[in-house]
Structure to design on (281 residues):
């Protein structure tokens, strides 16, 4: 098989690995499949380590001789067994093990003479180093969307229950009511829709036109007269557009930068204001 086919394949595999590790390392304690599960970065690294180790053993058997690894009859049961084995692993241990085994697998395939790098080998590499990672990134996106929906429900319930009260204060001591929070959340989602579009088109999310503090001050002044009903309506419309955009991103298009953009301006942002409200009493 031509070298350029494998060159593209290695680029895709490296992009998936970089994206995965950036997201996992960004917040190792985050429940990456949603807060309703207990799957952490450690579990993700350990899971991939096991499957890459299995793929490595199979590749060595086929390419170098020797007995093949025992077939896995029930993948779910095997995953559960491996997960039970790995409960004592730290995130760093799991990451190091996964990194090492992945590199051993890559080195084995890269070391093959060209005549042995055939379609079967390419399919195995694509499955283990691209497809498997895309599948798991899809689980992450589903978890993020689940977290967003739950956090949005908590925020809107809290705001709707106290539409005219001061819910928290800003760093400058200014009181924030429900209308202010709705308008503020809407502004950040609205301004980030074209930034996400640009990131998807070019690979680079453009900088904001001003600092976050300057934008917040400007928007607070502009929205000072907005009613609760109008601010709420605007926020719901913006949230639907922002989440529709997120749901429409194909898994191969996702980057760690886009994860931080959506997290920071949706469920992570809602959580910040809920925390401010909780501390304000």
């Amino acid at each position: 098989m031509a070298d350029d086919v494998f060159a593209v394949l290695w680029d895709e595999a490296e992009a998936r690995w970089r994206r995965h590790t950036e997201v996992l390392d960004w917040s190792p304690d985050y429940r990456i499949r949603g807060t309703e599960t207990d799957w952490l970065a450690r579990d993700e690294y350990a899971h991939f380590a096991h499957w890459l180790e299995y793929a490595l053993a199979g590749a060595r058997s086929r390419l170098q001789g020797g007995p093949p690894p025992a077939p896995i009859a029930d993948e779910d049961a095997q995953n559960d067994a491996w997960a039970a084995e790995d409960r004592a692993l730290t995130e760093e241990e799991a990451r190091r093990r996964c990194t090492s085994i992945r590199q051993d697998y890559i080195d084995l395939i890269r070391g093959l003479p060209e005549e042995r790098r055939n379609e079967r080998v390419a399919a195995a590499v694509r499955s283990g180093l691209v497809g498997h990672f895309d599948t798991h990134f899809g689980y992450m996106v589903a978890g993020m969307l689940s977290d967003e929906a739950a956090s949005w429900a908590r925020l809107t319930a809290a705001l709707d229950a106290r539409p005219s009260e001061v819910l928290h204060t800003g760093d400058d001591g200014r009181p924030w009511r429900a209308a202010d929070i709705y308008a503020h959340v809407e502004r950040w989602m609205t301004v980030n829709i074209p930034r996400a579009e640009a990131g998807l088109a070019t690979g680079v999310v453009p900088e904001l036109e001003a600092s976050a503090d300057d934008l917040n001050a400007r928007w607070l002044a502009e929205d000072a007269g907005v009613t609760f009903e109008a601010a709420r309506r605007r926020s719901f419309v913006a949230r639907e557009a922002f989440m529709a955009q997120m749901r429409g991103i194909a898994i191969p298009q996702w980057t760690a930068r886009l994860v931080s953009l959506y997290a920071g301006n949706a469920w992570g942002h809602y959580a910040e204001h809920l925390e401010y409200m909780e501390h304000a009493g």
